[in-house]
Design a protein that fits this description.
The protein is an alpha/beta fold and 562 residues long. The chain is 26% helix and 28% strand. InterPro entries: 5'-Nucleotdase_C (IPR008334), 5'-Nucleotdase_C_sf (IPR036907), 5_nucleotidase/apyrase (IPR006179), Calcineurin-like_PHP (IPR004843), Metallo-depent_PP-like (IPR029052).
Amino acid sequence: MKNNFLLIGAALSLSSCSMILGPSTVDVTVIGVNDFHGNLLPTSFRVPDPADRTKTLTVQAGGVEAIGGILAEARKANPNTVFVGVGDMTGASPLISGLLRDEPTIDALNGLGMAVNVVGNHEFDYGFAELQRYQKGGCNSNDATKACKFNNTFTGARFPYIAANVLDEKTGQPALPAYKIVQVGKAKVAFVGAVLKDTPTVITPAGVAGLKFEDEVKSINAAIPAIKRLGADAIVALVHQGGTSGDAFDIVNCKTLTGPIVDIAKNLDPAVSAIMTGHTHRGYNCLVPGPDGKDRTVIQGDALGHLLQRLDMTIDTRANRVTAIRASNVVVDAAKAPKDAAMTALVQKARGLTDPISKTVIATLGVEQITRAAAPNGESLLGRVIADSQLAAAAPADKGGAVIAFMNPGGIRADLPVNVPNASKQVTYGDAFTVQPFGNILTVITLTGAQIKEALEQQFDNPSAGSNRILQVSRGFTYTWDNAKPKGEKVSDIKLGGQALDPAASYRVVVNNFLADGGDGFTALAKGTNRLGGDLDIDAFRAFLTSSTVTPDPTERVKRLN
């Protein structure tokens, strides 16, 4: 009997201890946005038609007012909600933010309560010093014409920018924190981040000067021991790299994910419970097995705030582990979501400063909209228009005498105009700026015919095996590529004005300064000689649109076989 009383006493003691400590599990909601690009206002987004999934419906999605409303609802339902960024919050932004050096976007994210953001490649668009200003605040910008025009003072981001794999090139020391541990209710949730290691290939050299980008997996895994020592209850990776899926964004636990993120996910430390991703602008909600063989969530929302990534996790704070996780992509339907009053005021202020420029009608198109959607051969209707605009700007002898123009597809940021219907067929300066927001400088270079072919061959397996970056080409330039041929031998029948390109002859070619420096993996273009800088790309685009009623050229310039 004595032993029984001892056991009963021990049980009562443990029960009393549990009552004092309280329950050990906590429900945490993590909501993330990726590739926001300063889109303070909603834009068109296509969603599956619930009545017939073979069809889609167009809704106005995104915008900080609706995002704020959705966050408020989530926080009301679960106070243990944290809001995070998965890179590219700024850069390549529409005029409402870009004309004000993206400071309205930083202020909006502060107001929305963002806790942490992993840097994306576009956070480096204006250079590391400007990224540091975004973090710390102040008006000492490398573009004084735009800085501190939204507010007389700019206080910077109240959330940290993180990345485990960005180092100072000289010292080898971290340029940014690797992680941030956020107290969410009773749980410590660690967010560890990395930006794609190939960032230097997709950003102008000045943007990443002095920085080194290491392998994503190696860098994140190296940070895990320190995170564990600090007692994190859950670890979520924020990785600004992604993939694509054959399933729609609302299909849960898909198994069709492909692209660079798959290898990253397969090799990240098993302590990482979920991976929130970005960069590829594709919504998906998939499972990928980790190194322990167990499936874990890899999720991404669509770009521009159209979708918010959401993780609902149950965390055991005594065992320091996630016991359950449910992932979903939330459509930010601007017509249905409640509006955040503070965000409405912010948007109104930004529009008051930018609308006089943004709303100026600059042209009337021959069609309602010219799209950037690529055909199977890699060309887009808008790509042809932009290439033609750049050739027109650089063809005069005093502007470089260009005879060919190449435009990188990643630099075409939106359809023209973004939203339809557009019965008037009019486009504004804001529409044009949204398409070409970088302010790149047109650069005329001399290339041989052989170097041009070399550049065209670099379109394939770019940025990774099985992926292509097809350059948009100007009127009069044609070629054929054969998908069945091996890399380096895909391009043939290159012609200019109907005449075969001479490998030994020299040609004047206009590209933006990003491509001229070998961006997007086009290192052959960096071999160009006799460089001559010219107009800004947006100015050339506007002039071309203004000069006549533009209707996209339907004639195929690039022929694809197989």
